[in-house]
Design goal:
4 helices
């Protein structure tokens, strides 16, 4: 099996992690154990699950880890939405982070559909 490092979705997920870290560095210090930790963990989990799934033994294992990565992306979407509504963080620029997350989610969705063509969920 080829390395996860060759997967464009993994490369974009790593860019997303960096973007999340850069964004959350601008958050108030009191969020270090709250929203900052949650957002960073969600972003890291996306990239980590892509990598782990790629090195599992079967296509079904890979598919399961892609689903976990996709779910972590949904968590991060929610956390970004919350951050954009909070008084102390709503004025930050979320464009780059949101665009990267959208791109990663679309890629994961396409990969999941390709690996599981019988899936009816979209």
């Amino acid at each position: 099996m080829h390395s996860y490092r060759n997967l464009i979705v993994w490369q974009r997920a790593i860019q997303l992690v960096v973007a999340i870290y850069e964004l959350t560095e601008q958050f108030p210090r009191e969020e270090i154990y709250g929203l900052i930790a949650q957002m960073r963990r969600s972003a890291v989990t996306i990239a980590s699950n892509i990598a782990e799934g790629r090195h599992r033994g079967t296509k079904q294992d890979f598919l399961q880890f892609l689903r976990i990565a996709y779910s972590s992306g949904a968590e991060l979407e929610t956390q970004l939405e919350i951050a954009q509504r909070l008084p102390k963080t709503k004025r930050l620029d979320y464009a780059r982070t949101t665009a990267l997350l959208t791109e990663v989610m679309k890629m994961l969705h396409a990969m999941i559909k390709t690996l599981n063509p019988r899936a009816t969920k979209s």
